[in-house]
Every structure is written in C-alpha cells, then in structure tokens.
C-alpha cells in the first residue's frame, strides 16, 4: 500500500497552580495517535527529580499475539515483566543496543523481570510470531508518559521550565523538542510528525502473518 505522511498535531495546556497538569492530544491526519512518548526534562532545580526511589516493576503483556501496550515508557533502572496472556507460547527477544535479552518459548509469567538499566529504545520481537513488534522507551527524563488510544496525555509538573521531547516508533522524522514554562494560563504547542501509517501502526493485513497456532 502507498505510504501516507499525515501531520501530527499536539495541543497542550497547563493550569495555573503550584503543580500544574500539563496535558495534550496527538493527532495523525485528524485521527488520535496512540503510543507517542512525551518526555519532560526539568531545566530548573525545583522540577528535577533528585535521588528518586527505585522504580517499581512494570509489565508489558502479550495478548492476541500483540505486545500490550505497543509502547512502554520507563525510567532507567525499571524492571519489566513480560507476561504471556495468550493460550499459545511466545519467545520474546531484543537485539537493541540498549538491552539485549531473550525469554525463550514460554507461557504464563516469567519468574524474573528484565532490568532496563540503560537509556535507549528497545525494539521487541517474538521469535515465533514474526509480525509481533513492541517497544520499551528507556529514559533518564524527569517525567514520562505515553499517549492513550485517544491520543491524550497528561503530566503533573512542579513550577518551572521543561524541555519536552516526543518519540513515536512509526515516525519518519521525530518532532522537534519544545521548551515550556509551567505554570501558564494557557500553553499551546503544535508538533508536526510524519508517520508511515495514519494510525501509527501497520494495518491488520500486515499483522496477520507468521506461523500458525502450533506454538
């Protein structure tokens, strides 16, 4: 199919408060865009996360032969479990420089999590079902979030200045960073991002490939 290059528009606003909720919505070709990472790095001492507690363990599931969520954003040092909620076995792996690992053919929940201890983008695959693709975005940013199915995101930020960065796995060119100040009576950002597919993910016709139900 021919690739489309829709624009992604991100609108954000912050309420006037000592700790403001910065919120936004990402759109691709007029449609909500899920799975876009929004990272906020504090530029002032008040907003920095100094000596944070050890990150709590998180989970990236496998359901209906897909990684769920498609994109998981975590701080460096976060342990992540990879439960398999399908009735078939999966074989999760990554060759990414930020984290190389392998969980061989299994069902249920592995006993040990995978520790993501280096910043970077970790692409995930299944050695049995080749179309399965997911991502762990590992960052040292002070605040992280990912847009939901409606393209929405929120961050609770203390007063101060922040550098916002954006990442989407389907982007042909990532959006430029933005500097914002919190609080602000009304803060509006427009971020343009080009993606290969309007929804940010391959269509179902490209995902229904691979091996049968023998695993």
Structure report:
It is a single chain. By secondary structure, the protein is an all-beta fold. It has 2 domains: 88 residues, no CATH class; 82 residues, Immunoglobulin-like (Sandwich), CATH 2.60.40.420. Helix content is 2%, strand content 48%. The protein contains 1 helix and 20 strands. A 5-stranded mixed sheet has the order 8-14-13-10-11, with no helix packed on it. It is globular. It starts with 7 loop residues before the first strand and ends in an 8-residue tail after the last helix. The N terminus and C terminus are likely disordered.
What are the key terms here?
disordered C terminus, disordered N terminus, Immunoglobulin-like, about 220 residues, globular, 5-stranded mixed beta sheet, mainly beta, 2 domains
Q: Can you give me a brief rundown of this structure?
A:
The protein is mostly beta strands and 215 residues long. The protein has one helix at residues 204-207; strands spanning 8-14, 19-28, 31-32, 37-42, 58-59, 61-63, 66-68, 71-75, 78-81, 90-96, 99-106, 114-116, 120-126, 133-139, 143-146, 152-158, 160-167, 171-173, 178-182, 194-195. The model is unreliable at 1-7, 13-17 and 207-215 (pLDDT under 50).
Determine the mean pLDDT: 82
N- to C-terminal separation?
30 Å
> What is the percentage of strand-forming residues?
over 45%
Question: How many separate structural domains?
Answer: 2
Structural class: mainly beta
Widest β-sheet, arrangement of strands: 8-14-13-10-11
Residue windows where pLDDT falls under 50 for at least 5 positions = 1-7, 13-17, 207-215
Structural shape:
globular
Order of helices and strands: EEEEEEEEEEEEEEEEEEEEH
What's the helical proportion of residues? Answer: under 10%
- Largest sheet composition: 5 strands, mixed
Q: What radius of gyration results from the CA coordinates?
A: 18 Å
Count of helical regions: 1
Query: Based on DSSP secondary structure assignment, what is the total number of beta strands?
Result: 20
């Amino acid at each position: 199919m021919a690739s489309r290059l829709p624009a992604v528009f991100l609108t954000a606003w912050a309420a006037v408060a000592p700790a403001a909720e910065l919120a936004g919505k990402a759109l691709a070709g007029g449609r909500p865009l899920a799975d876009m990472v929004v990272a906020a790095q504090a530029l002032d001492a008040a907003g920095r996360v100094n000596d944070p507690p050890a990150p709590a363990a998180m989970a990236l599931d496998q359901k209906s032969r897909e990684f769920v969520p498609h994109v998981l954003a975590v701080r460096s040092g976060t342990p992540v479990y990879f439960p398999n909620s399908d009735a078939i076995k999966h074989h999760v792996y990554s060759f990414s420089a930020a984290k190389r690992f392998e969980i061989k053919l299994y069902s249920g929940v592995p006993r040990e999590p995978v520790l993501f201890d280096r910043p970077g983008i970790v692409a995930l695959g299944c050695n049995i079902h080749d179309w399965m693709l997911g991502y762990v975005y590992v960052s040292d940013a002070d605040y992280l979030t990912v847009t939901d199915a409606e393209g929405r995101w929120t961050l609770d930020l203390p007063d101060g200045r922040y550098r916002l960065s954006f990442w989407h796995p389907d982007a042909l060119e990532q959006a430029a960073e933005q500097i914002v100040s919190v609080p602000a009576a009304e803060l509006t950002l427009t971020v343009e991002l080009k993606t290969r597919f309007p929804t940010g993910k391959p269509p179902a016709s490209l995902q229904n490939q691979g091996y049968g139900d023998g695993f």
